[in-house]
Each structure stands twice: as C-alpha cells, then as structure tokens.
Design a protein that fits this description.
With 349 residues, the chain is α/β, with parallel strands linked by helices. Among the domains are: 79 residues, Nucleic acid-binding proteins (OB fold (Dihydrolipoamide Acetyltransferase, E2P)); 161 residues, P-loop containing nucleotide triphosphate hydrolases (Rossmann fold), CATH 3.40.50. It has a six-stranded mixed beta sheet with strand order 10-9-8-11-13-12, sandwiched between helices. The longest helix is centred in the last third of the chain and has 27 residues. The relative contact order is 0.13.
Length: 349
Amino acid sequence: MSSGSDIEALRRIGWRDGDSAARVARVVAQHRAGYEVHDGHAVIAAQPDGRFLKRRIDPAERPAVGDFVVLDEAEPPTIERILPRRSTLTRAAAGERYARQIIATNIDYVLVLTGLDGDFNPRRIERYLLLIEGSGAQPVVLLTKADRTEDVEAKCAALRERLPDTTPVHAINARDPATIEQLSGYLRPGDTVVLVGSSGAGKSTLTNTLLGESRMATGAVRASDSRGRHTTTHRALLPLPGGACLIDTPGMRELKLTGEESLDLFADIEELALRCRFADCAHETEPGCAVQAAIASGELDAERWRNYVKLKAEREEQAATLEARLKQQGRAKTPGRRSGQRGRGRDDV
C-alpha cells in the first residue's frame, strides 16, 4: 500500500493522481532480464507478470519506460498491471512485420535534438513531429552544436517558418550549463521530458549537463554526415536535480510511421489542395491547381510539398497494413485519425 509519504515521493518522479491503495512505482528501465522501477525513494528490480511475456501480446501492452505500474508485495516484486497512460510516444517497429513500439509514456515534452552540422535535416524533424502529433505531449525542437555553427539564426528562422507556431525551436550548446535555464520552462518539478534524435545529435551530452554530472557516455561523430555510434543502449528514466524527470533514448536510425498520424502538421497544405479547380487534382500539371500555383509564387516551399507527399503515402501504406492486422484480430477500426494521442520511413530522409 502507498502511504501519503509514498505518494509525495512518487510526485517527485511525475505522479499526477491522488492517493493509491496499491503499491505504485514507475518504470525507469527495461532489460532482457526484467525491469527497474522507482518507488519515489529508490530503484528496485522487478519482474513482469507472466501475461506480459506471452508471444502474441501487442508490445504496446507491455510495461514501458515511463509507465506507472502496480507491484505485488513480494521481494523482488512482480509488475501486476499498468496504470492508465496520460501520453504515449509510439513508432512502428523496424522490420517487415507491423508492430508498434513504445518509445516513452507519461511524458509532457518531447525534445527533438538535431545538430546544426551535417545532421540538420528539416524533413527528419517533420517526421518526428508527425509521430509526436497525437502522443499527448508537446514537441520542442532543440538545434544543438550552436557554438560550432556560423549561420545559426538563419537556420532557426527558416525552420520556424516551416513549422507550426506552436512548436518551440531553440538553438543550444548542449555542454553549456546555461542551457538548463534556457530549457527551464520544460523542466519544472514533476514534469517528464524525453530526448529523441539521431546518434551524435547530443542527447547524452545534454543529459549530462542537465544531471550536472558525466553519467552518460558520449561519443565522436563521423565527419561525413555528423552521425555517431549509439552511446545510449537502452531507454532510461533519470530524475533531474531540479525535480523534473528525463528519459534518454538510443539514437533512432529508422523512424517508421504507425499509420495513425493525422498529418495536422501539414494542415495548411491540405487546406490549399481544397482550392484546386478539380476535386481529383493530382497537383501535377492540371489547370487551376492551387498547390502548383502556391509553389510557383513561393507561398509553398517545393521541398516541403515533396516531403508531405512522401509522408502521406507512407502513412496510407502503414494505415492499410494496420487495418488489415486489426481485421485479422477481429477488431478493425479506421486508422489515420487518432485523437488525443497520436508507412515505412527512415530518420535520414
């Protein structure tokens, strides 16, 4: 049973609900041999209940980093059930077989890290934002290595023009302790942030700065494309000195859409397409095409339009795969319009 003092301890690692009669803890790491959970006082090892180990279970129904779970009273304890998630960041798992993979749960902000060096890729940032769109969390774009780049303001301005006004964009030096104050609005006591981005983007460096100690290994990047090796090998939730919680993740080489994305990120383009003379306009050479007219006038960036077309096609492919899978399981629904929480794609396109 969680006493009042236990609940107050849990609040320090992101608990938002009231008192609980159960033994509650938060998943902070997952390993092949089991889980690590935090009860607000200390990290303890825990094993999943047998039903979570069944081969046919949807991976999204297993405990994930960020989850609040109910434990039994045994030592070491068993995870009996997962408490309702207030937000879930998900991608489609790599490989040919369709499966959803949870990146993190119960998060408030998703910090998307991209280097201002050769790693800088607005198309990949848009792919991240699509995945975040329906997660229930707020995206924040962090452009790292600002101390090594000359045209920082120009890149920031161009990216802000391309992204929705509701998506903050910050240029940072991940090694500079002043970054903590710069990001303080996202690191309030009880808040949880998750870091995502390519290997070499500076996630581990930023984690060390926020922790105030060199706890996470960092690595060099290749000169050819500014990519690095994975220095973070598994997702881990870390309490920060200021009271927030941070989830660090391994670099993602492949970012596949789930088929449930709403494409709200490109609402302006979809609105523009409604102005075409013909309802079945392919937006290529048809007369009266509002999209091509906007590209010609400079109102719509041609590269952003091509990325929208690519992502929409991938979303529809994944949606069809998801629908077929759900029908096979006898619980078909219409994918592609997930509300409240948000085929195939790579993070380097």
